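Cast an eye over this sequence plus tokens and explain the fold to me:
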Amino acid sequence: MATKHEQILVYIESLAVGEKISVRRIAKELQVSEGTAYRAIKEAETKRLVSTIERVGTVRIERKKKEDIERLTYAEIVNIVDGQVLGGRAGLHKYLNKFVIGAMQLEDMMRYTEAGNLLIVGNRYKAHEYGLRAGAAVLVTGGFEASDAVKKMADEFELPIISTSYDTFTVATMINRAIYDQLIKKEILLIEDILIPLEETAYLNLKEPISRYHTLNKETTHGGFPVVDNAKRLVGILTSRDVIGQSLAESIEKVMTKEPITVSTQTSVAAAGHRMIWEGIDLLPVSDDYGKLKGVISRQDVLKAIQTAQRQPQQGETIDDIIKSQLHQQLNDRLLLEFRVTPQMTNAYGSISHGAYTMVLTEAASAVLKTKNRKDSVLENLTVYFLKPVQLDSLILVRPCILDISRKSAKVEVEVSLDNETVGKAMLTFQLLDR
């Protein structure tokens, strides 16, 4: 039977898009405590089922598909620009497909403004009216108000008119940043992207005998299976190591490994892969917040997904991408990488940031390993034992050197120099993976 928390989430998902909800309403209609209702609404916000806006309340919004993640709702715009809704609250759940900056003559501006747009403009009252009539929502910058007639029109057309204290340029930058961040998130592979769902997953019940394990083993050739109770809650995992020497009639509950390592659907594939390698496991159960089994992933699934993702074109550059593009290999008998410190890689004092520096070290060490073997490598440990500040626009040389390499691991020392002076040294340990 579903918990009260789950029942609330199902109820919220059943609501019409654009409908307002509140803690008090949920508590009253579903006869739960306000604390339970509050926690469920917060989770619904995390799952992008609702959006909470200051001075407006919580509104049911359409859940985004991953391929449409670059589209924002007007409700999200309110949160991004710390805005105030002046009218048209009923349209906050709608998506915008383009924003138009109103920095031109009114007639020219309206040629570019159409339904589904967001018109960003200052205290130009005629532009507010024309934008709404064209089917666009309006974002008023500079903290200016809108006329009562325009507010009334916004309510009639169900198109939001929003006011923000930021200037037009800052607002455009903030919206662009939000879209860009979501595009990067889109490119990060999550467990939900590769999950083998519960309907296709072979699993065991803790009350079944070990003979059931052998039956599933013959049917699927898998070496391990998650174990659940009658409510489909994950309680353990059973592998070939657990059943060696055990009677076929013995209960699974007595021999299974309890409290197995699990991940959620929102865990990144890379993080799950690293954990599987470090823990030496081939099968990882996926559960929800209530411990219910959602499916499983295997090490092969993870490696295949990571290798496929590496061949896909990226939508946006992360700071890692920028750093990788700055590393230039010099052709010497020893691998030598050249790197220039750009503004994005500096801290508040104008020298290379710790994050950028460790990224340079890791990339250089990975590059030298690729010259010796064709295996993928995973960083296990990094120790920086010498570091001097490196200023903006400095051209540094990075010299990685393999100290030790075996079938499963490698140790690499990296030396960083500037103008023939050593400015950094580090030791990195990697695990090597068979492709």
